[in-house]
Amino acid sequence: MPRSLALLLRDAHRTVDSEVLAAAAKAGFEIQPGHAIVLRHLGEDGARPSEMAAKAQVTRQAITKALDDLERLGLVRRHPDPSDGRGITVRYTTRGLGALQIARTRMQELEREFASQVGAKQWATFRSVLETLFDTPGRPAAHAKPPFPGTPSTRQTPKSISPRSPAPQASKNSR
Predict the structure, then answer these.
(1) Which of 67, 69, 70, 78 is nearest to 96 (CA)?
(2) How many angstroms separate the CA atoms of 125 and 119, rounded?
(3) Which of 72, 115, 76 is nearest to 95 (CA)?
(4) Distances from the Cα of 15 to the Cα of 19, 28, 59, 68, 87, angstroms
(5) Other C-beta atoms within 10 Å of 80: how many?
(6) HEC readout, 47-60
(7) Taking the model in full, what pTM does it have?
């Protein structure tokens, strides 16, 4: 039986992440895997911690822990949110933007390496399929329901997959 799609995608994700972290480490950045929950959802214009938590589908506390580490490393800074005096916005520092550029460069290198392994045309098709399946604005994700009560989902949930729908009950024989 072929390996499951979930395992293949997981392994691809781990490969890219480990390569990017290794490139960052080589350049002198101490970025850890747990910091990705912030770095993947920060954006160059900054973001509020609550927005990052919702996008990453983690608790606000998990974001705060990663922010504490990243701020200590000089990669991000918290600033008062000009639109809400009670809130904060997180932005990359100049050093953080340097780390972001290293990550982007390594990802581009990886794509060129993958294309050379499978052929440019096949890689372009593969990438296009991934974009169609997973990068379509408004397309609900399989994990569209909020991960925690009160956490807003960043995507619309179709009525047929309502987070309020009860989960299917397992039969006694399947336990």
Answers:
(1) 70
(2) 10
(3) 76
(4) 6, 20, 25, 26, 36
(5) 11
(6) ECHHHHHHHHCCCH
(7) 0.71
3-state secondary structure of 2: coil
Q: What is the pLDDT of residue 139?
A: 52
Q: How far apart are CA 14 and CA 136, in angstroms?
A: 23
The answer to whether the beta carbons of residues 43 and 18 sit under 8 Å apart is no
For residue 157, report the phi and psi dihedrals to the nearest 5 degrees.
Answer: -100, 125
CB atoms within 10 A of CB 127: 14
Which helix H or strand E contains 40, and what residues bound it? Answer: helix 36-42
Yes or no: say if 92 and 42 are a contact pair by the CB < 8 Å rule.
yes
pLDDT averaged over consecutive 10-residue blocks of the chain (175 residues)? 91 93 94 89 90 91 94 95 86 94 95 96 94 72 43 37 38 43
Integer Cα distance of 78 and 86 in angstroms: 13
Domains of the chain: 5-118 (1.10.10.10)
